[in-house]
Amino acid sequence: MTKHFYNELERLKKKILDLTARVEDSLRMAVKSVTELDRELAMKVISTDQEIDALEVEVEEECLKILALHQPVAADLRYIVAVLKINSDLERIGDLAVNIAKRTKNLQYNNGVRIPFDLHSMLAKTEKMVSESADALIRSDAELAQAVRVSDEEIDKLHKLAFQTVYEQVKKHPDHAQYFISLLSVSRALERIADHATNIAEDVVYMVDGEIVRHQLDDEDF
Prior knowledge:
It is a single chain. The protein is mainly α. The protein has a single domain (about 5-220), classed as Methane Monooxygenase Hydroxylase, Chain G, domain 1 (Up-down Bundle), CATH 1.20.58.220. It is about 85% helix and about 0% strand. The chain has helices at about 5-35, 40-45, 50-70, 75-100, 105-110, 120-140, 140-170, 175-210, 215-220. The longest helix is centred in the N-terminal third of the chain and has 33 residues, at about 5-35. The protein is elongated.
């Protein structure tokens, strides 16, 4: 491959890392807006989403241009294919961070009602998954990526427990239904973010080892 190709590949790497950092920041702010009921911070998350969307389009266009002009093979091709998929997952995490931030308004009016499930633990674990999947991408670390995949099961269990708990609380306290449903919306968004972090981790494994590991954990559980 030519020097021009590797210059374009380096530019692509910088763009996907920039997008990764922006999405991590957005999720971090969204989490903080919910835990501290900070509406100003929530609005910041919402307002910066367009920047993430624009950068996602730039990364996709860069990938397609490199594929069309240089027809890369082997590890270079795997990297670009992985970036295309990771790019989409990062954009979706950004969208879900916005969904979480939007719940801040409803959660402010809780009338002293406590959160009936371990939301803080779920927030922390999901944020860690996104951070570690990003680190795995940056460092091309397949071992760390595999650890992220395993972590997804814990988030799934926490979300199922949250759903059951909220269902019971809405029946007992229908006057607080909107508050409990907003909490469940946050839990659902976190569960989906964890799924996208898992997707990123799986694509990192493919990028590094050339192995498609999607569905393997499900098969092992069966």
